[in-house]
Specification:
Layout lengths: L2 E5 L6 E7 L7 E2 L4 H5 L19 E4 L4 E4 L2 E2 H7 L2 H10 L5 H13 L7 H6 L7 H15 L9 H27 L12 H10 L10 H14 L6 H10 L5 H13 L6 H12 L5 H9 L20 H17 L3 H15 L2 H5 L6 H11 L7 H22 L21
Antiparallel strand pairs: 1-2, 2-3, 4-5, 5-6
The structure holds acetyl coenzyme *A.
Length: 422
């Protein structure tokens, strides 16, 4: 077995650790015996050098700007497969056959209704409640309606658990939106596909047979696919950490929703549009770029930078292409688009951004498309939730099946007071 040896300079003692090889990507040093052997922990705030698990689901090469689900390139999936096919792939490891896809689609449609009692939860929120607060609460509440999922005995139980959540999340998302406007909820329409149905539940009047243009369905379906999974990001790490305590799967995913909300993570898409609106005109872009570079100013360009991607975010590239293809058909807000394009052009040629490897991420473009779909910016992170629920489910399932799983319990370097007397 390959190994590395560490030497403790204080006493010359040597410790050897095995190296584990992945199918692709970086080798990892197996430091599990570290504490037993050395009496020391590692120190790695933000887990910048830590692999927390082994996973078969998603592969990212940040240097090359590569993203793969179960081995398939994101570009191929986004171009050729529907979001539901991608869901099936992430959860089952293989793409569905035609018949499997039809059966899967039908089952999700049937499971898209939520218990009538759950509607009351939405009425308990104040008028100005952020939809993410409602969403996280509704998914957590769902665990009370399906308490049997705390202990699943069979593969069939697991299948039901994940299909239920996947199918109901768009319904809950649309309810959250409609509650924030104080307008009646629209129930799922079994005749419509997953993505079309969500747009219908968002925008239809009661009783209206609203036609959703195909171009809108295609754009949103692609956005869902691009958000479907992203290996061990902050929200997925949260889902795995909560799963490690044995909590209900929907409770773990509700915690993932909360972790996603922050603007350093999924909340960035809402902040990008807010920022573009705040900048207001192409003429003010230079002023804001200068603010970004000022070390005394906390202003950050939203939708730029990524912990893993240091060349480009492949999802951003796909969205930029989609934006170019569909901007006339979708009716993209030209003023905001021009500001965004100017920011991108200035930033990509500026040494501050080049030297720090800061490129537009997925959130930089998604908001422009979502705005054209008449989705308000408060709902952008909810769109991320709908897309990412499948990833969280796949990671939850993988975690629970992992024979090496352990409760998530990192250690610390204590720097507080030494023992003292009262
Ligand atoms: N604007 C300006 N400067 C930035 C930005 C930005 N958006 N992002 C990073 N930097 C600078 C930092 O100030 C720092 O500069 P310094 O070395 O002079 O101190 C350097 O780049 C490194 O930044 P870190 O915050 O250390 O990088 P980290 O990998 O920890 O953070 C993150 C990544 C959180 C995404 C960060 O780039 C950021 O805050 N971006 C804006 C928010 C955003 O778009 N989030 C969405 C991420 S994608 C997603 O979650 C779907």
């Amino acid at each position: 077995m390959d190994s590395v040896t560490l030497t403790d300079n204080r006493n010359g003692k040597q410790y050897t650790f095995g190296i584990l090889h992945p199918t692709m990507g970086q080798d990892v040093i197996d430091i599990r015996p570290l504490f037993k052997q050395t009496g020391m922990f590692t120190y790695d705030p933000g887990f910048t050098s830590t692999a927390s698990c082994s996973s078969e689901i998603t592969y990212i090469d940040g240097g090359k700007g590569e993203l793969r689900y179960r081995g398939y390139a994101i570009e191929d999936l986004a171009q050729n497969k529907s979001y539901l096919e991608v869901c099936y792939l992430l959860l089952n490891g293989e793409l569905p056959t035609k018949d499997e896809l039809i059966a899967y689609d039908m089952e999700l449609r049937k499971r898209s209704f939520v218990h009538e009692g759950l509607k009351n939860l939405f009425y308990a929120f104040p008028d100005k409640a952020h939809p993410m607060a409602m969403m996280s609460s509704a998914v957590s509440a769902l665990s009370a309606f399906y308490s049997e999922h705390i202990k699943m005995q069979s593969e069939e139980d697991l299948q039901v658990m994940r299909r239920r959540l996947l199918a109901k999340v768009p319904t809950l998302a649309a309810f959250a939106y409609r509650r924030s406007l104080g307008i009646p909820f629209i129930y799922p329409d079994l005749k419509r596909s997953f993505t079309e149905n969500f747009l219908y539940m968002m925008h239809a009047y009661p009783g209206q047979d609203l036609k959703i243009p195909e171009v809108q369905v295609r754009a949103l379906d692609t956005i869902f696919t691009l958000h479907a999974d992203h290996e061990q990001n902050a929200s997925t790490t949260t889902v795995r950490a909560v799963a490690s305590t044995g909590a209900h799967p929907y409770a773990a995913i509700s915690a993932g929703i909360d972790a996603l909300w922050g603007r350093a993570h999924g909340g960035a898409n809402e902040s990008v549009i807010a920022q573009l609106e705040y900048i207001g005109s192409v003429g003010r872009v230079d002023e804001f770029i200068a603010r970004t570079k000022d070390p005394d100013d906390e202003f950050r360009l939203m939708g730029f930078g990524h912990r893993v991607y240091k060349n480009f975010d492949p999802r951003a590239k796909i969205l930029k292409k989609l934006l170019d293809e569909l901007k006339d058909e979708l009716g993209i807000d030209n003023e905001l688009l021009e500001i965004a394009e100017k920011i991108e052009a200035v930033a990509l040629s500026d040494d501050y951004f080049i030297s720090r490897k800061l490129y537009p991420n997925i959130d930089f473009y998604s908001g422009l498309i979502l705005t054209a779909l008449k989705i308000p910016k408060e709902m952008f992170t909810i769109i991320f939730v709908i897309g990412r629920t499948v990833g969280w489910l796949a990671q939850w399932i993988e975690f629970n099946a992992d024979p090496e799983k352990k409760i998530a319990r990192p250690r610390q370097r204590y720097i507080g007071p030494e023992p003292r007397e009262l």
